[in-house]
Design goal:
Blueprint (H helix, E strand, L loop, with lengths): L7 E6 L2 H13 L5 E4 L15 E5 L4 H9 L4 H10 L10 H4 L28
Antiparallel strand pairs: 1-3, 2-3
């Protein structure tokens, strides 16, 4: 079972980068957020049900996240944020963790199949 089970979708798009921007905005505001992509990357679909990318938050944070995402930033606020950004700031995550963000790695089992031919299920995160 994922640690993000029952989280609420507060934003839906068809592009990974847009979802990443929204997730980062929520994270920067103290709201934990993850990206759940249902996009079919093999065919690079960007429309329809095979292109859904959701930004998910804990159920108790959904209203706060929705309110934050409804706020419009002025050009002056955006410029100030850009100028205040430190290009030499250390990465937010270590490289090994950064590569796993939004990968669904907690659901992957790269071990051999069970004796009965069924894939093994990893319940260690439950």
């Amino acid at each position: 079972m994922s640690s993000h089970e029952n989280w609420a979708s507060v934003f839906r798009t068809s592009t990974d980068y847009e979802a990443d921007l929204v997730r980062d905005r929520l994270d920067d505001s103290g709201i934990p957020a993850v990206v759940l992509t249902q996009r079919d990357h093999a065919f690079n679909l960007t429309v329809g049900d095979l292109a859904s990318v959701h930004v998910m938050v804990p159920p108790g944070q959904a209203d706060r996240a929705a309110s934050l995402l409804e706020e419009q930033l002025s050009d002056k606020e955006l410029e100030a944020a850009a100028l205040d950004a430190d290009p030499d700031a250390p990465p937010a995550n270590p490289p090994d963790q950064d590569s796993k963000l939004d990968s669904g790695h907690e659901h992957m089992d790269l071990g051999p199949p069970d004796e009965d031919g069924e894939d093994a299920v990893d319940n260690s995160s439950a």
